Each structure stands twice: as C-alpha cells, then as structure tokens.
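Shift notes (night). Ran Possible secreted protein while the centrifuge was going.
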Amino acid sequence: MTAMRKVKDLTGPGRTDHFGIGGTDLGVMAVAPDGRLVSVFGDTFERAGVGGRGWRSPVVLFGDPATARTGVEWTGSTGAGAYAAQALPYHHDSVINGLHVSTVIPTDLITIGGAMYLHVMVCQGIGNVHWTEVHRSTDNGETWQHTGATWPGDHHGGLFQMLTWAPGDDGYVYAFSTGFQRDKGLILQRVPADRVADPGAWEGWGFRDGAWAWGNPPTIALTGAYGELCLRPVGGRWLLSFFDAGNYRIDVMNMALPTSNLYEAPRTTVLHGTAWGREDHACGHVAQLYGGYIVPGSTLDDLHLVVSQWNTERNWPYRAMQFAGSAPAAG
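Came back to this:
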C-alpha cells in the first residue's frame, strides 16, 4: 500500500475566491492544444460551502502546466473578466426536453488534435441521470458547443453515466464507465478518435461464446461499487484511478492495456476514507473523499491526483485538493 500525501488545497478561500469560486468539487484535468491545463469543476458556489449565490456547473479553470507537480496554480477561467462563468448554457432547476434538470455534472474531458471534448451528466439531483452528452471546444476550453451526441441515462443498464476516457496510440479512445449511484461495476468501450461524438461508433468489450472481444455488448469488467473514474496513459502503462465507494477509498490500478484483466492488474489504495476528526492528510486519511483525477504531467513514481471532499453535514469543507504519491508497480 502506498499512501499519498497532500500537496495543497486547489480551491476555496485564498485559492479561487477571486474567480468567484468559494465551494466546488471534482476538477478533472486535461492539457489543452495550446499547452495549458484545463480543469473542469462541478457544482460551484460563491461562498465557501454548498448553496447560496453563484450556483453554476460546470466551471473551467486554466492552470500553469509548470506547476502541475508542485501544486497547480490557476491562471484564468472561462467567461469575461475574472469571474468563472458557467461553461454550458442552461439554467439550474429548469425544465429541459420536458424533464426537470437541477444540474449538469462533468465526468471527464479529452484532447484530440486541436479540439477538446467534455462528457457530462444531465441530472435531477445526485445519482439521477436523465441523459449524458458530449460538448466540444475548439478554442482550448474557453467556449463549448454541444456536439449533438447524447445517450439516455439507462444506456447499457445505467452503466454509461460516470465516464472516463483516454486516447490510445492505435486511433481509438478507450472509455470505462459506471453508474452515478456508486453501487455498480465498470464496463469498457472504445470508439475511433475521430468519431467520439458519434454514438453509433462506440463498441463494447464483452464476454460471449467463451471469449472477450470487441463488438460484443459490454460485460462488467470489474464488479464493485464505484464512483468517479480517471483513465490515463502514463509512462507506457495505463493508469485507472477511481473512487471505490464500496470500500470508502481511492485506488489506482496499473494496466498494460485497457483490456487487461482488471482482477489481476496491480492495484493499490492510495487514500483511505475516514471520519471527521480523524483525518491525517499527510498519511492519506481523508474524510468524505471522492474524485481522484490524474494530474497531467504525472509519472508512475510521482503520481498526482485531484481529490474532492465534502462535509455533507456542515457543507464545508467542500473543495478540491491535490495529493501526490506513486502508482502501483507493474506486475
């Protein structure tokens, strides 16, 4: 077991309040075509907590890539002026396509050539996903346009809601996904990199007729109860970090390929959930933790994660933090 240590708070007072961000979470990251770090956050409020003025989601901050492994420093945000504006055009607690939508939550973003793609869940409350969709940015994450790609919330039995994706060197993008209820396992799909916004181009990794193969309906590749996911190629390997809700911890898996047997791939717990009053961020014990997104620039020996924390009783802390440690050694 390799415990991570806290590097710094990434959001909250003294960090992001000058962007109008007091409380926020998530913070999944990718490198924009122009080299900047792009970090997308979820439900965001002006005060240090949950609720009140300035509710928006998703919100985008830009970071200095030179600070990725020392503690990300923010250099700007979407929107005019310093105030971080909501990146997508909708209103919270409104009716869209005849359904009540409370918020739109980001799951992952990816850079392909000169464009970035953002996958989001359109929700009525936490865990209730009406549908998912993909947005595209051709200006390094400054503005986003709907691609027209949508999937119903019950697609693949509700296992295509919380998603992570990453490009291989074979022309495909690989994507693990699960539900947003933190009680489901993982499935794997792939799609040609130039067709990520074409739902018909996605194909599953599934077990049928005694063998695993592409083109089959996706079979659960790892049983369990999972939340936020992050798949990234790092150091010639594929790392999958994830919130293991069933065991209240964040794990990292080291795979040769996305199709590796997930039951046999090296896996380690890097952060343990704990109770309030028993935290030790220097030793990897964090209360009400979730997330666990890989920071670009990480290596196998110097792995950095963006980790969220929400005290649901007091509504503060509600923030994103950066932790560092190492990935499990390859088997």
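The chain has a mean pLDDT of 97. The first strand starts at residue 5 and ends at 9.
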